[in-house]
Design a protein that fits this description.
With 375 residues, the protein is of the alpha/beta class. Helices cover 37% and strands 20% of the residues. It has two domains: 7-145 and 332-374, Nucleotidyltransferase, domain 5 (2-Layer Sandwich), CATH 3.30.420.40; 151-330, ATPase, nucleotide binding domain (Nucleotidyltransferase, domain 5, 2-Layer Sandwich), CATH 3.30.420.40. It has 14 helices and twelve strands. Strand 10 (294-298), helix 12 (305-314) and strand 11 form a beta-alpha-beta unit. Helix 8 (225-232) packs across helix 11. The protein is globular and about 60 Å long. The two termini are 14 Å apart.
Length: 375
Protein backbone atom coordinates (compact mmCIF):
# COMPACT_ATOMS: atom_id res chain seq x y z
CA UNK A 1 0.00 0.00 0.00
CA UNK A 2 1.29 3.41 -0.96
CA UNK A 3 0.21 5.52 2.01
CA UNK A 4 1.98 8.68 0.84
CA UNK A 5 -0.09 9.69 -2.19
CA UNK A 6 -2.96 11.07 -0.13
CA UNK A 7 -5.43 10.14 -2.88
CA UNK A 8 -8.56 8.27 -1.77
CA UNK A 9 -11.81 7.20 -3.38
CA UNK A 10 -15.08 7.55 -1.50
CA UNK A 11 -17.98 5.29 -2.53
CA UNK A 12 -21.53 5.58 -1.26
CA UNK A 13 -25.10 4.87 -2.19
CA UNK A 14 -27.60 6.59 0.06
CA UNK A 15 -30.93 5.49 1.46
CA UNK A 16 -32.66 6.61 -1.74
CA UNK A 17 -30.86 3.68 -3.43
CA UNK A 18 -30.76 5.41 -6.80
CA UNK A 19 -27.11 4.75 -7.62
CA UNK A 20 -23.48 5.07 -6.60
CA UNK A 21 -21.40 8.19 -6.03
CA UNK A 22 -17.65 7.78 -6.53
CA UNK A 23 -15.39 10.67 -5.50
CA UNK A 24 -11.62 10.96 -6.00
CA UNK A 25 -10.32 13.01 -3.08
CA UNK A 26 -6.92 14.46 -2.23
CA UNK A 27 -6.46 14.17 1.55
CA UNK A 28 -2.76 15.06 1.55
CA UNK A 29 -3.29 18.50 3.07
CA UNK A 30 -5.41 19.58 6.00
CA UNK A 31 -8.50 20.04 3.86
CA UNK A 32 -9.86 17.26 1.61
CA UNK A 33 -10.14 18.37 -2.02
CA UNK A 34 -12.56 16.81 -4.51
CA UNK A 35 -10.44 15.99 -7.56
CA UNK A 36 -12.95 14.13 -9.72
CA UNK A 37 -16.34 12.45 -9.47
CA UNK A 38 -18.44 9.81 -11.20
CA UNK A 39 -22.07 8.91 -10.66
CA UNK A 40 -23.71 5.71 -11.85
CA UNK A 41 -27.28 4.48 -11.66
CA UNK A 42 -28.23 1.04 -10.47
CA UNK A 43 -29.71 -1.17 -13.22
CA UNK A 44 -33.46 -1.53 -12.75
CA UNK A 45 -33.27 -5.20 -11.74
CA UNK A 46 -30.60 -4.53 -9.11
CA UNK A 47 -32.60 -1.61 -7.74
CA UNK A 48 -35.65 -3.88 -7.50
CA UNK A 49 -33.68 -6.54 -5.60
CA UNK A 50 -32.35 -3.89 -3.21
CA UNK A 51 -35.85 -2.61 -2.56
CA UNK A 52 -37.00 -6.15 -1.78
CA UNK A 53 -34.08 -6.64 0.62
CA UNK A 54 -34.97 -3.52 2.58
CA UNK A 55 -38.46 -4.94 3.10
CA UNK A 56 -37.25 -8.17 4.69
CA UNK A 57 -38.49 -8.57 8.23
CA UNK A 58 -35.10 -9.80 9.44
CA UNK A 59 -32.39 -9.28 6.80
CA UNK A 60 -29.72 -10.76 9.09
CA UNK A 61 -31.51 -14.10 8.86
CA UNK A 62 -31.55 -14.08 5.05
CA UNK A 63 -28.89 -15.17 2.60
CA UNK A 64 -27.92 -11.94 0.89
CA UNK A 65 -24.60 -13.20 -0.46
CA UNK A 66 -25.51 -12.88 -4.14
CA UNK A 67 -26.86 -9.35 -3.65
CA UNK A 68 -23.84 -8.42 -1.51
CA UNK A 69 -21.52 -9.55 -4.32
CA UNK A 70 -23.51 -7.83 -7.06
CA UNK A 71 -23.49 -4.53 -5.15
CA UNK A 72 -19.75 -5.01 -4.58
CA UNK A 73 -19.25 -5.43 -8.33
CA UNK A 74 -21.29 -2.28 -9.00
CA UNK A 75 -19.22 -0.31 -6.48
CA UNK A 76 -15.97 -1.61 -7.99
CA UNK A 77 -17.13 -0.69 -11.48
CA UNK A 78 -17.93 2.84 -10.29
CA UNK A 79 -14.40 3.20 -8.87
CA UNK A 80 -12.75 1.75 -11.96
CA UNK A 81 -14.78 4.02 -14.26
CA UNK A 82 -13.78 7.03 -12.17
CA UNK A 83 -10.11 6.09 -12.55
CA UNK A 84 -10.44 5.42 -16.27
CA UNK A 85 -12.14 8.76 -16.83
CA UNK A 86 -9.44 10.65 -14.93
CA UNK A 87 -6.42 8.61 -16.12
CA UNK A 88 -5.30 7.82 -12.58
CA UNK A 89 -4.08 4.30 -11.87
CA UNK A 90 -5.01 2.04 -8.98
CA UNK A 91 -1.44 2.21 -7.70
CA UNK A 92 -1.86 5.95 -7.11
CA UNK A 93 -4.81 5.45 -4.75
CA UNK A 94 -4.07 4.90 -1.07
CA UNK A 95 -7.43 3.31 -0.29
CA UNK A 96 -11.13 3.26 -1.05
CA UNK A 97 -13.59 4.26 1.66
CA UNK A 98 -16.75 2.31 0.84
CA UNK A 99 -19.88 3.01 2.84
CA UNK A 100 -21.82 0.34 0.99
CA UNK A 101 -25.59 0.21 0.57
CA UNK A 102 -27.67 0.31 3.74
CA UNK A 103 -30.27 -2.44 3.94
CA UNK A 104 -31.39 -1.86 7.52
CA UNK A 105 -30.39 0.50 10.33
CA UNK A 106 -31.60 -0.68 13.76
CA UNK A 107 -29.63 1.16 16.46
CA UNK A 108 -32.44 0.77 19.00
CA UNK A 109 -33.08 -2.94 18.51
CA UNK A 110 -32.48 -5.34 21.44
CA UNK A 111 -29.24 -6.23 19.68
CA UNK A 112 -28.41 -3.02 17.77
CA UNK A 113 -27.01 -3.27 14.25
CA UNK A 114 -26.62 -1.43 10.97
CA UNK A 115 -26.39 -3.57 7.84
CA UNK A 116 -24.59 -2.32 4.73
CA UNK A 117 -23.85 -4.58 1.77
CA UNK A 118 -21.37 -4.32 -1.10
CA UNK A 119 -18.66 -6.96 -0.57
CA UNK A 120 -15.50 -4.97 0.27
CA UNK A 121 -13.18 -7.92 -0.42
CA UNK A 122 -14.62 -8.14 -3.92
CA UNK A 123 -14.24 -4.39 -4.42
CA UNK A 124 -10.59 -4.67 -3.41
CA UNK A 125 -10.02 -7.62 -5.74
CA UNK A 126 -11.69 -5.96 -8.73
CA UNK A 127 -9.98 -2.58 -8.28
CA UNK A 128 -6.58 -3.64 -6.96
CA UNK A 129 -6.96 -1.11 -4.13
CA UNK A 130 -7.20 -1.52 -0.35
CA UNK A 131 -10.72 -0.93 0.93
CA UNK A 132 -11.94 0.47 4.23
CA UNK A 133 -15.55 -0.56 4.89
CA UNK A 134 -18.00 -1.42 7.68
CA UNK A 135 -17.78 2.06 9.17
CA UNK A 136 -20.76 1.86 11.51
CA UNK A 137 -20.18 -1.31 13.54
CA UNK A 138 -17.39 -0.01 15.78
CA UNK A 139 -19.50 2.92 16.96
CA UNK A 140 -22.49 0.66 17.65
CA UNK A 141 -20.25 -1.75 19.56
CA UNK A 142 -19.17 1.24 21.68
CA UNK A 143 -22.81 1.91 22.55
CA UNK A 144 -23.47 4.48 19.84
CA UNK A 145 -26.13 4.83 17.17
CA UNK A 146 -23.65 4.22 14.36
CA UNK A 147 -24.98 7.41 12.78
CA UNK A 148 -24.60 10.08 11.71
CA UNK A 149 -20.90 9.60 10.92
CA UNK A 150 -20.24 12.67 8.80
CA UNK A 151 -20.31 15.40 11.51
CA UNK A 152 -16.57 15.00 12.11
CA UNK A 153 -16.01 15.67 8.42
CA UNK A 154 -18.44 18.60 8.48
CA UNK A 155 -16.47 20.07 11.37
CA UNK A 156 -13.15 19.64 9.57
CA UNK A 157 -14.40 21.34 6.41
CA UNK A 158 -17.23 23.75 7.24
CA UNK A 159 -16.72 25.05 10.80
CA UNK A 160 -16.13 28.78 11.28
CA UNK A 161 -14.73 30.91 14.09
CA UNK A 162 -16.82 33.84 12.92
CA UNK A 163 -20.31 32.35 13.11
CA UNK A 164 -22.36 29.42 14.32
CA UNK A 165 -23.33 27.11 11.46
CA UNK A 166 -25.44 24.04 10.89
CA UNK A 167 -24.78 21.58 8.07
CA UNK A 168 -27.95 19.85 6.87
CA UNK A 169 -27.62 16.71 4.80
CA UNK A 170 -30.86 15.81 3.05
CA UNK A 171 -30.69 12.30 1.68
CA UNK A 172 -33.49 9.83 2.25
CA UNK A 173 -33.15 10.85 5.88
CA UNK A 174 -32.21 14.36 7.02
CA UNK A 175 -29.44 14.92 9.54
CA UNK A 176 -27.92 18.06 11.00
CA UNK A 177 -24.44 18.84 12.31
CA UNK A 178 -24.27 21.76 14.73
CA UNK A 179 -21.00 23.70 14.43
CA UNK A 180 -20.89 26.46 17.09
CA UNK A 181 -17.22 27.13 16.28
CA UNK A 182 -14.05 25.22 15.39
CA UNK A 183 -14.01 23.35 18.73
CA UNK A 184 -14.60 19.69 17.87
CA UNK A 185 -15.81 18.83 21.36
CA UNK A 186 -18.79 21.16 20.94
CA UNK A 187 -20.05 19.54 17.73
CA UNK A 188 -23.42 17.83 17.97
CA UNK A 189 -25.64 16.22 15.38
CA UNK A 190 -28.40 13.71 14.76
CA UNK A 191 -31.05 12.54 12.30
CA UNK A 192 -33.98 14.97 12.37
CA UNK A 193 -36.31 12.55 10.54
CA UNK A 194 -37.41 12.13 6.93
CA UNK A 195 -35.48 13.97 4.26
CA UNK A 196 -36.48 12.86 0.76
CA UNK A 197 -37.70 9.37 1.60
CA UNK A 198 -41.42 10.11 2.00
CA UNK A 199 -41.50 12.57 -0.90
CA UNK A 200 -39.68 10.11 -3.15
CA UNK A 201 -42.02 7.28 -2.18
CA UNK A 202 -45.08 9.44 -2.86
CA UNK A 203 -43.64 10.57 -6.22
CA UNK A 204 -43.07 6.93 -7.20
CA UNK A 205 -46.65 6.12 -6.30
CA UNK A 206 -48.39 9.13 -7.83
CA UNK A 207 -46.04 10.28 -10.62
CA UNK A 208 -44.38 6.95 -11.43
CA UNK A 209 -41.13 8.87 -11.18
CA UNK A 210 -38.16 8.35 -8.85
CA UNK A 211 -38.51 11.82 -7.34
CA UNK A 212 -40.33 15.13 -7.42
CA UNK A 213 -38.12 17.11 -9.82
CA UNK A 214 -37.27 20.49 -8.27
CA UNK A 215 -40.22 20.03 -5.90
CA UNK A 216 -42.67 20.99 -8.67
CA UNK A 217 -45.29 18.47 -7.54
CA UNK A 218 -45.12 19.75 -3.95
CA UNK A 219 -45.17 23.36 -5.12
CA UNK A 220 -48.43 22.72 -7.00
CA UNK A 221 -50.22 21.66 -3.80
CA UNK A 222 -51.31 23.19 -0.52
CA UNK A 223 -49.97 22.28 2.90
CA UNK A 224 -52.64 20.50 4.91
CA UNK A 225 -52.13 21.62 8.49
CA UNK A 226 -54.27 18.88 10.05
CA UNK A 227 -52.22 16.21 8.26
CA UNK A 228 -48.96 17.93 9.16
CA UNK A 229 -49.89 18.13 12.84
CA UNK A 230 -50.90 14.46 12.86
CA UNK A 231 -47.54 13.45 11.42
CA UNK A 232 -45.64 15.68 13.86
CA UNK A 233 -47.14 13.74 16.76
CA UNK A 234 -44.73 10.87 16.12
CA UNK A 235 -42.54 10.44 19.18
CA UNK A 236 -39.34 10.41 17.12
CA UNK A 237 -39.56 14.15 16.60
CA UNK A 238 -39.68 14.93 20.32
CA UNK A 239 -37.11 12.33 21.35
CA UNK A 240 -33.84 13.94 22.46
CA UNK A 241 -30.61 13.08 20.65
CA UNK A 242 -28.53 11.06 20.13
CA UNK A 243 -30.89 9.43 17.68
CA UNK A 244 -30.89 8.08 14.15
CA UNK A 245 -33.47 6.53 11.86
CA UNK A 246 -34.04 5.24 8.34
CA UNK A 247 -36.57 4.44 5.60
CA UNK A 248 -37.41 1.21 7.42
CA UNK A 249 -39.25 3.52 9.84
CA UNK A 250 -40.28 6.55 7.77
CA UNK A 251 -42.09 5.10 4.76
CA UNK A 252 -45.53 5.08 3.14
CA UNK A 253 -46.79 2.54 5.67
CA UNK A 254 -45.80 5.01 8.40
CA UNK A 255 -47.73 7.76 6.60
CA UNK A 256 -50.86 5.65 6.14
CA UNK A 257 -50.85 4.51 9.76
CA UNK A 258 -50.89 8.05 11.12
CA UNK A 259 -53.49 9.85 9.07
CA UNK A 260 -56.36 9.34 6.67
CA UNK A 261 -55.24 10.73 3.33
CA UNK A 262 -57.70 9.12 0.93
CA UNK A 263 -59.74 12.30 0.45
CA UNK A 264 -56.79 14.64 -0.10
CA UNK A 265 -55.39 15.67 -3.50
CA UNK A 266 -52.05 13.92 -4.13
CA UNK A 267 -50.24 17.23 -4.65
CA UNK A 268 -51.44 18.45 -1.24
CA UNK A 269 -49.99 15.35 0.39
CA UNK A 270 -46.66 15.98 -1.35
CA UNK A 271 -46.69 19.62 -0.24
CA UNK A 272 -47.33 18.47 3.33
CA UNK A 273 -44.56 15.86 3.23
CA UNK A 274 -42.16 18.52 1.99
CA UNK A 275 -43.25 20.78 4.83
CA UNK A 276 -42.75 17.94 7.32
CA UNK A 277 -39.08 17.74 6.32
CA UNK A 278 -38.59 21.51 6.48
CA UNK A 279 -40.54 21.99 9.71
CA UNK A 280 -38.80 19.20 11.65
CA UNK A 281 -35.37 20.44 10.57
CA UNK A 282 -36.26 23.99 11.59
CA UNK A 283 -37.70 22.92 14.94
CA UNK A 284 -34.52 21.03 15.81
CA UNK A 285 -32.28 23.93 14.78
CA UNK A 286 -34.25 26.33 16.99
CA UNK A 287 -34.23 23.82 19.84
CA UNK A 288 -30.62 22.63 19.71
CA UNK A 289 -28.78 25.36 17.78
CA UNK A 290 -30.59 28.66 18.44
CA UNK A 291 -27.46 30.73 17.72
CA UNK A 292 -27.25 29.48 14.14
CA UNK A 293 -26.43 32.17 11.58
CA UNK A 294 -26.04 30.03 8.46
CA UNK A 295 -27.46 26.73 7.23
CA UNK A 296 -25.35 24.83 4.68
CA UNK A 297 -27.43 22.25 2.84
CA UNK A 298 -26.02 19.20 1.04
CA UNK A 299 -27.38 15.95 -0.34
CA UNK A 300 -29.99 15.39 -3.02
CA UNK A 301 -32.50 17.60 -1.20
CA UNK A 302 -30.37 20.64 -1.99
CA UNK A 303 -31.58 20.31 -5.61
CA UNK A 304 -35.24 20.52 -4.54
CA UNK A 305 -35.91 24.21 -5.03
CA UNK A 306 -39.29 24.12 -3.30
CA UNK A 307 -37.81 22.37 -0.26
CA UNK A 308 -35.04 24.96 -0.08
CA UNK A 309 -37.67 27.70 -0.17
CA UNK A 310 -39.65 26.02 2.61
CA UNK A 311 -36.51 25.71 4.73
CA UNK A 312 -35.86 29.43 4.31
CA UNK A 313 -39.48 30.22 5.18
CA UNK A 314 -39.25 28.10 8.35
CA UNK A 315 -35.91 29.66 9.35
CA UNK A 316 -36.36 33.45 9.18
CA UNK A 317 -33.19 35.28 10.09
CA UNK A 318 -30.95 32.34 9.15
CA UNK A 319 -29.13 32.36 5.81
CA UNK A 320 -29.99 29.17 3.90
CA UNK A 321 -27.39 28.20 1.29
CA UNK A 322 -25.60 25.06 0.08
CA UNK A 323 -22.17 23.61 0.72
CA UNK A 324 -21.38 24.52 -2.91
CA UNK A 325 -20.76 28.06 -1.69
CA UNK A 326 -18.15 26.66 0.71
CA UNK A 327 -16.11 24.44 -1.54
CA UNK A 328 -17.93 21.14 -2.04
CA UNK A 329 -20.76 20.42 -4.46
CA UNK A 330 -23.77 19.44 -2.29
CA UNK A 331 -24.25 16.22 -4.27
CA UNK A 332 -20.76 15.01 -3.37
CA UNK A 333 -20.28 15.83 0.31
CA UNK A 334 -21.09 12.31 1.54
CA UNK A 335 -18.78 10.56 -0.95
CA UNK A 336 -15.95 12.95 -0.06
CA UNK A 337 -16.68 12.31 3.62
CA UNK A 338 -16.13 8.56 3.31
CA UNK A 339 -12.86 9.08 1.48
CA UNK A 340 -11.86 11.33 4.40
CA UNK A 341 -13.03 8.76 6.95
CA UNK A 342 -10.85 6.16 5.21
CA UNK A 343 -7.87 8.49 5.53
CA UNK A 344 -8.66 8.96 9.24
CA UNK A 345 -8.78 5.19 9.72
CA UNK A 346 -5.38 4.64 8.13
CA UNK A 347 -3.93 7.52 10.15
CA UNK A 348 -5.20 5.89 13.34
CA UNK A 349 -7.56 8.78 14.14
CA UNK A 350 -11.03 8.03 15.55
CA UNK A 351 -13.77 9.02 13.12
CA UNK A 352 -16.85 9.14 15.33
CA UNK A 353 -17.92 11.92 17.67
CA UNK A 354 -19.37 10.43 20.89
CA UNK A 355 -21.39 13.60 21.54
CA UNK A 356 -23.14 12.92 18.22
CA UNK A 357 -23.63 9.15 18.21
CA UNK A 358 -23.85 8.49 21.94
CA UNK A 359 -20.88 6.12 21.91
CA UNK A 360 -18.94 5.63 25.14
CA UNK A 361 -15.70 6.69 23.46
CA UNK A 362 -14.14 7.86 20.22
CA UNK A 363 -13.16 4.81 18.17
CA UNK A 364 -11.52 3.94 14.88
CA UNK A 365 -14.17 3.49 12.22
CA UNK A 366 -13.98 0.94 9.45
CA UNK A 367 -12.21 -2.34 8.79
CA UNK A 368 -9.33 -2.69 6.37
CA UNK A 369 -9.68 -5.17 3.52
CA UNK A 370 -6.19 -5.27 2.08
CA UNK A 371 -5.72 -6.00 -1.59
CA UNK A 372 -2.60 -8.01 -0.74
CA UNK A 373 -4.68 -10.22 1.55
CA UNK A 374 -7.05 -11.37 -1.19
CA UNK A 375 -4.36 -13.10 -3.22
Amino acid sequence: MNSKTGLYIGLISGTSMDGIDAALVDCSSGQPVLVAKHGSRYPADLRKRLDAATRLENPLAENLTALDNDIGRAFAQAANTLLADTHFSATQITAIGSHGQTIRHEPDAPVPYSLQIGNPRLISELTGIDVIADFRSADIEAGGQGAPLVPGFHHAVFASDQESRVVLNIGGIANITVLPDRTASRVTGFDTGPGNTLMDAWARRELHAPLDQDGQFAASGNIRQALLQALLQDEYFSRPPPKSTGPEYFNLEWLMSRASITSLPPQDIQATLCELTAATVAADIYRYAPATVRLLVCGGGARNQHLMQRLAANLPGITVTTTGDYGIDPDWVEAVAFAWLASQRLAGIPGNLPAVTGARAAVLLGRLFSHAAVH
